[in-house]
Amino acid sequence: MATIAIVNPLFEVSYWGMEHAQAIMGTRANMPVASLPLLAALTPEEHDVTLIDENVEPLDFDRLAQFDIVGVTGMSVQRFRMDEIIQELKSRGVFVALGGPWVTVEEDYFHGLPDVIFVGEAETTWPQFLEEWKTGDHQKRYEQADRTDMTTVPTPRHDLLKNKHYMFGSLQFSRGCPFQCEFCDIIVTFGRKPRIKLASQIINELECLRSEGMRIAFIVDDNLIGNKRGIKPVLEEVAQWQERNGYPLAFMTEASLDLCEDEELMELMARCNIQAVFIGIESPNEESLKETKKFQNVRERGGTLLEKIHQIQDFGIEVWCGLIVGFDNDKPDIFAMQTKFLKESRIALAMVGLLHAIPKTPLHARLQQEGRLDLNDDQPFGTNVIPKQMSRETLRAGYMKTMFDAYTPDVYFDRLDQLYIQDRFRLRAFETEAFRKRPLMRLRYATFYTVGFGVLFWKLMRGTPDRELRKIYRQRIFNLVRHRFTNPSVCFYYLTKCAMHYHQHKMTQQMIEHPDTFVSTIGKSMRTRREATIEQQAPLPVLRNDPPQTASAAECPPHAARSHSR
């Protein structure tokens, strides 16, 4: 028997992490990476497994030194902290196994320090390694010969996580994406043929999340609808489970923009209580979309880019998006174009990022051939891409201005109010046939959201240190209540958008005030946040049933480091 610790290193402050909102919400992290509980489930029963997430508890290296094996996973944005952890472990003579997105695309990054590395998916190689480790005959490098058959994946061990410290849980329905975006490493790691779990597997995982007290979860698929025909019967069974059990879980997920073309699929998602989707819009510049082979965003079917987004919103599913600046076809006017697009799209929450070339992607290979890659590991301009039609200084300054414009309070809340007040957005999930036929369930949900509104309002006013922001939040909230008081779910979710705004606003302020330490979504250093982490060991009381509408980039071993969704 081996004693095994599996470690997820600290994340830096980012769009996905919502770190500045954690104190308001009474949690320490937004969600667990999906690799931790899945790796535990893949570990043979004779071994003893401990899951450690540095985002919710500090690392005790003396304790880690007592384990037979310490596994470390991590994405590209965690690479600096991963390196520090591995060096500290090796100085203590610890056996280190390394896997995850970053080592998958940069195998030599850690200079041979780990005792063993795992490249790509690990459903077969992790158990194989443990069997060989027992006899002292393990390999130095493991890589699966074939992609994982998703119908064989076990139920992740969510019970081994410190779930009370997370805003919400995570689970995965499928892997892979059919599209060919040049910058994306998902298709490199997981392929272009989506592979889907059986509905029975997903139901088992839902029951597990439910037993752990989770009320909201992020479906971490990079494109849930990559195989529309295949996912529909799965969603039908999930919808029936929700209906039988009184809708115990709410979901967010990631999907491609062609979702708008299939109303049957949107209705199934609503019946599953999928309330929001993150969509990789990337750019309103059509030439940039064609350049990066994001053809699904430029095809005429379904209308213009804005019309497609509005179709999804008007149906009753909220849209968050990813935007990128720095494509070869982007000129200095792209920043104003992005700002204008955000306003017209009615999307409040946008992850704006600089184009970044991830190793092993077609973009990385092309720019390397063109001599347009910054090979420094900690890029001073926030990206390793040397732009084609503007200077690096112009790109960085324009990006920061775009972020500032996006999260200036008046601008942000004008977008939110356009959707929630002027256009009277409503969640389709609460208008499905199952809800209409169950008045008691409607009453229960109305009560929950009414109570939740009061609790979250108290948290927001108590946890927002900026007096002027508190005043803005109060004014906007009271205005929303005057117009939508008959819809408590809308009022509740509006408050979650205030907490999310606080995070984005503070993150953007810090970026602008300290441009010398500027970092972008994908190329960040860990140094500023780590000194302050886990100081909040006594967080504010948390409403365990809160379903805050945030998102995070999660991983399943060894989920590729991503910059944006499909």
Q: Would you give an account of this structure?
A:
The chain is α/β, with parallel strands linked by helices. It folds into 3 domains: 3-143, Rossmann fold (3-Layer(aba) Sandwich); 168-425, tm_1862 like domain (pyruvate-formate lyase- activating enzyme, Alpha-Beta Horseshoe); 434-513, no CATH class. It is 42% helix and 11% strand. The protein has 21 helices and 14 strands. The strands form 3 sheets. The chain has a 6-stranded parallel beta sheet with strand order 2-1-3-4-5-6, sandwiched between helices. Strands 7-10-11-12-13-14 form a 6-stranded parallel beta sheet. α6 links the parallel β5 (116-119) and β6. α9 packs parallel to α10. The protein is globular.
Write the layout of secondary structure elements.
Elements: E1 3-8, H1 19-25, H2 35-42, E2 48-53, H3 61-64, E3 69-72, H4 79-91, E4 96-98, H5 101-105, E5 116-119, H6 125-134, E6 141-143, E7 169-171, E8 174-175, H7 186-189, E9 195-196, H8 199-211, E10 216-219, H9 228-244, E11 250-254, H10 263-271, E12 274-282, H11 286-291, H12 305-315, E13 318-325, H13 334-345, E14 350-354, H14 362-370, H15 392-407, H16 409-422, H17 433-436, H18 439-463, H19 467-484, H20 488-513, H21 527-530
Parallel strand pairs: 1-2, 1-3, 3-4, 4-5, 5-6, 7-10, 10-11, 11-12, 12-13, 13-14
Antiparallel strand pairs: 8-9
Helix pairs in contact: 1-20, 8-9, 9-10, 13-15, 15-20, 16-19, 16-20, 18-20, 19-20
